[in-house]
Amino acid sequence: MNRQLTLIKMYVLLVYADDIIDDKELVVGKRMAEYERITEDSLEREVETLRTIDHALLYKEVLQGMKQLDINIQVRFVAWLSIIANADGFMDEREWQLIYRLYSKDLHLPLADIMLKQKELKQYIKVSQKAA
Fold this sequence. Notes:
InterPro entries: TerB-like. This protein is mainly α.
């Protein structure tokens, strides 16, 4: 599975986890896509296709895709999820459960590395918003 599709699947699971699609989450999702070299059209098309797929199946595909990636990419992708989940100022319990299950229970990623990567990505978002 291609890494960009894995990330888009993660994004879909996250933004639909709480049944509330916040504009701020969408804006940060676009920044994520830009950073990861995913076109906006591709992101929107894939989201539209994936949003109706059973979340349990989608999660299995995400996990399979993530396990094929380098740990640094795994950390970056989970950091993106955390940033997007917090974009609206509040991480819903279902968003937190998804992120925790992925990074801690299933992939055993170091939280300190994820938090460090979040700082880096937040800086990218800040700079890219000023440039826009």
